[in-house]
Amino acid sequence: MGVAKTIRPYHQPAGGWGALKAMGTALVEQHVAVHGMATLARMNQPGGFDCPGCGWADPKHTSPFEYCENGGKAVAWEMTTRRCTPAFFESHTVSELSALNDYELEMEGRLTHPMRYDAISDRYLPVSWDEAFALVGAHLNALPDPNMAEFYTSGRASNEAAFLYQLFAREYGTNNFPDCSNMCHEATSVGLPQSIGVGKGTVLLEDFARADCIFIFGQNPGTNSPRMMTELRNASRRGATIMSFNPFRERALERFQAPQSPVEMATLSSTPISSRLYQVKVGGDVALIKGLMKCLLAADEEARARESAPVLDWDFIKGHTAGIEALVADLNATSWSDVERKSGISRTEIEIAAQAYMKAERAILVYGMGITQHRHGTQNVQQIANLALLRGNVGREGAGICPVRGHSNVQGDRTVGITETPSRALLDAIEARYGFSPPKADGHNVVTALEAMVRGETKVFIGLGGNFAAAIPDWQLTQQAMRGLDLTVHIATKLNRSHLVHGRDALILPCLGRTEIDMQASGPQSVTVEDSMSMVHASTGHNLPASENLKSEPAIIAGMARATLGHRSKVNWEALTEDYARIREEIEAVFPIFQGYNARIREPGGFHLTSLARERIWATATGKANFLVCDGLCEDPQVSEKDVLWLTTVRSHDQYNTTLYSLSDRYRGVYGQRDVIFLSQAEMDRRGLKADDRVDIVTVSQDGVERAVRAFRVVPYAFPEGGCAAYYPETNPLVPLYAHDPQSFTPASKGVPVRLVKSTATPAVQ
Ligand SMILES: Nc1nc2c(c(=O)[nH]1)N[C@H]1C(S)=C(S)[C@@H](COP(=O)(O)OP(=O)(O)OC[C@H]3O[C@@H](n4cnc5c(=O)[nH]c(N)nc54)[C@H](O)[C@@H]3O)O[C@H]1N2
Ligand SMILES: Nc1nc2c(c(=O)[nH]1)N[C@H]1C(S)=C(S)[C@@H](COP(=O)(O)OP(=O)(O)OC[C@H]3O[C@@H](n4cnc5c(=O)[nH]c(N)nc54)[C@H](O)[C@@H]3O)O[C@H]1N2
Ligand SMILES: [Mo]
């Protein structure tokens, strides 16, 4: 890849010509320049396909330029002309492949043929689809208990694939659905229902055009949802106040040059985005939000003393909420000195942000992984909800809570039944429709699935997309457990680490991507997806498949189901794969919210799945929206040592989760390398470290196990004290499996206590 390992601070705005150039480079690297541009023109358009990148919403799928740099890269990555064929597998043992880095693995290109691991030659060898399905069936049917199998989903799977998958696993007999969202927005799915009765956001895209104030907590839109920059830029230009709360001064949160704006591009001008960036300490959000709420309370009391208009929305609080007294008591018991110490932000600065929030008639609170991936992720989410409720900023135009989802259909997958804790209503609906009795007991999430693997209880792992072995925490322990499985099955488009961390028997089943024509007995098929704003729309691929041996995800799931369940199945798998409109009819039958599904996806832009909270109907135990108290400021009593730093593991600008588009991170000024640690000058001085020194990062473990990554390069950076940052997934070995939010089980990958030790190791070859 030939990019020199340098550190060169980036002084431009985010976006701009750099973004166009990077997208062009990605297309050229994948040898798809001309065809790629034609394909991109069909992205997020009526009759086209849905961007396989992030879960951000599209403006009714009607703008002529609805893609971004990183969406472009995601498409180029899928469309690549490179092929990872049986001949490639023939010439490399799995041990040899294991020496390649994650970038090199995926650069081998699209998988073309189903492959089965052969232990004698330590190679993957071609296998027929029928043999592959029979092998899955034989392993699953040999298990004494269906709960010894795990059915993992990554959030790119369509509604149709996900629905069939959960139906298959439930008819087989388990609710074991570890899901990428367990490592992602689970704190939202668990936290928000307690607060507002629904585990999803409450805003629509059009609300961004009406908001006076937008707060962004722990989310990096310029990299991870660049189409959101259009909304932020427009909001900024019409005078809305945007404020960000993030340990990094992420460039796109500062200023953005819109590649869609001819004027900005021609004049090299840009739009400032955040009027203030608050460099909150890693893990300091509860303190910060409590500080903001303290300001609101104080201002409200003052206003009432003066008999002027209240600051809190008392009509809303009295009519719609419960728990305000306990919240007020908690805030009064929270001292400013603790707030300042834990958040790293002064009271005066917090007051400025609070003023902006109070002044705004309509405010949107946006958040991402900086909020959810903590031991106190659920509490973080609920404090954001409290802040919204205090001013009635839920269920009103231009206002609301906006968790920005990750994968393009992670939200849809959950809506159509990928859940390890199914409701009674879902189980009853399945039983009524199909006449089999689905398992009632809760199944495994990612953490409990890994724990079961470590205990040796799990025998079979099936992954519908994703790169489980790389995305999970605590590799030393967890990857070893995966190697002990009887069978691992991966439905995938590209070769990745999970295929090499395999069980005794192992299959790689190559599938079609979103950009490709999905031809079934009734003709070409469309699938459907749901975005972060709960809009459901169709996605249709137009490119020829990467290989004639590929199958669609629904067809692969149906194949496994038939081979496993045989004649005892109550589902007509064949008929469902012949025509996906039939799958949508089934979804509608099980989930009444999808009423009129097949007709409604023909509307341009699709349709909105109504959210009760948006209508101010609260599906909580109290029938109200709940203010929820978080005791204290989420300090960790286990970690008091002075030299401990809180490590947050983040994405570079050039990766899609475990997929690396390159080893560079343009906006943070890092080129050709990923084994770096961002550290403030003060923390460096405290440790006698200089720029470019190499350090081992060692977790302060509670179980006596050594967790370390070696020889990371120190990069001085404007970063809050007490914390440091490095890239995911290279630092996943540092995240202990036990370190997760007790409520949502989200691994605490944005808050790992670590120590730095001067390295004696030489840097790993990248
Ligand atoms: N191009 C691209 N797009 C993507 C992805 C990708 O990898 N690449 N991934 C997709 C997925 S699955 C997801 S979930 C989303 C992820 O998108 P984001 O939510 O943006 O994820 P991250 O980059 O991991 O971290 C978000 C931000 O949190 C900040 N942060 C870290 N710790 C803290 C903290 O303690 N408090 C606060 N307030 N902030 C903190 C980081 O500095 C970073 O700016 O994007 C999706 N879209
Ligand atoms: N330390 C740390 N760990 C984290 C995170 C973090 O911020 N820090 N983030 C977490 C988050 S938010 C998430 S969502 C998870 C991500 O976990 P996953 O969703 O499991 O991982 P991805 O890297 O998105 O998966 C990439 C693989 O998906 C396959 N793929 C791509 N497109 C398709 C398709 O259309 N169909 C199929 N079947 N396969 C396809 C390709 O083979 C590719 O190699 O990681 C989590 N882990
Ligand atoms: Mo995610």
Descriptors:
single chain, alpha/beta, Rossmann fold, 4 domains, six-stranded mixed β-barrel, binds ligand MGD, binds molybdenum atom, iron, molybdenum, 4Fe-4S
Task: Summarize this structure briefly.
By secondary structure, the chain is of the alpha/beta class. It contains 31 helices and 33 strands.
Description:
- The chain starts with 5 loop residues before the first strand and ends in an 8-residue tail after the last strand.
- The model has no long low-confidence stretch (mean pLDDT 93).
- The protein is 36% helix and 17% strand.
- It folds into four domains: 11-79, no CATH class; 83-183 and 409-594, Rossmann fold; 186-403, Dimethylsulfoxide Reductase, domain 2 (3-Layer(aba) Sandwich); 645-758, Beta Barrel (Barwin-like endoglucanases), CATH 2.40.40.20.
- With 766 residues, the chain is α/β, with parallel strands linked by helices.
- A six-stranded mixed sheet has the order 6-5-18-17-16-7. A six-stranded mixed beta barrel has the order 25-32-29-31-30-33. Strands 12-9-8-14-15 form a five-stranded parallel sheet, sandwiched between helices.
- The protein contains 31 helices and 33 strands.
- A hairpin with a 4-residue loop joins strand 5 and strand 6.
- Residues 180, 184, 406-407 line the site of molybdenum atom.
Topology summary:
Blueprint: E1 6-7, E2 14-15, H1 16-29, H2 33-40, H3 69-79, E3 83-84, H4 86-90, H5 94-98, H6 102-107, E4 110-111, E5 115-118, E6 123-126, H7 129-142, E7 149-153, H8 159-172, H9 186-196, E8 213-217, H10 221-224, H11 228-237, E9 241-245, H12 251-254, E10 255-257, H13 262-267, E11 271-272, E12 276-278, H14 285-305, H15 314-320, E13 321-322, H16 324-333, H17 336-343, H18 347-359, E14 363-367, H19 369-372, H20 377-390, E15 400-403, H21 410-415, H22 424-434, H23 446-454, E16 460-464, H24 468-471, H25 475-483, E17 487-492, H26 497-500, E18 505-510, E19 519-520, E20 523-524, E21 527-530, E22 535-539, H27 553-565, H28 573-578, H29 580-590, H30 597-600, E23 607-608, E24 625-626, E25 645-650, E26 655-656, E27 659-660, E28 670-671, E29 676-679, H31 681-686, E30 694-699, E31 708-716, E32 723-727, E33 752-758
Parallel strand pairs: 2-10, 3-4, 7-16, 8-9, 8-14, 9-12, 13-24, 14-15, 16-17, 17-18, 25-32, 29-31
Antiparallel strand pairs: 1-28, 5-6, 5-18, 10-11, 19-20, 21-22, 22-23, 25-33, 26-27, 29-32, 30-31, 30-33
Helix pairs in contact: 1-2, 1-3, 7-27, 8-27, 8-29, 9-20, 14-17, 14-18, 14-20, 23-25
The structure holds ligand MGD (2 copies) and molybdenum atom.
Organism: Azorhizobium caulinodans (strain ATCC 43989 / DSM 5975 / JCM 20966 / LMG 6465 / NBRC 14845 / NCIMB 13405 / ORS 571)
Keywords: 4Fe-4S, Iron, Iron-sulfur, Metal-binding, Molybdenum, Oxidoreductase
Domain Molybdopterin dinucleotide-binding: 645-752
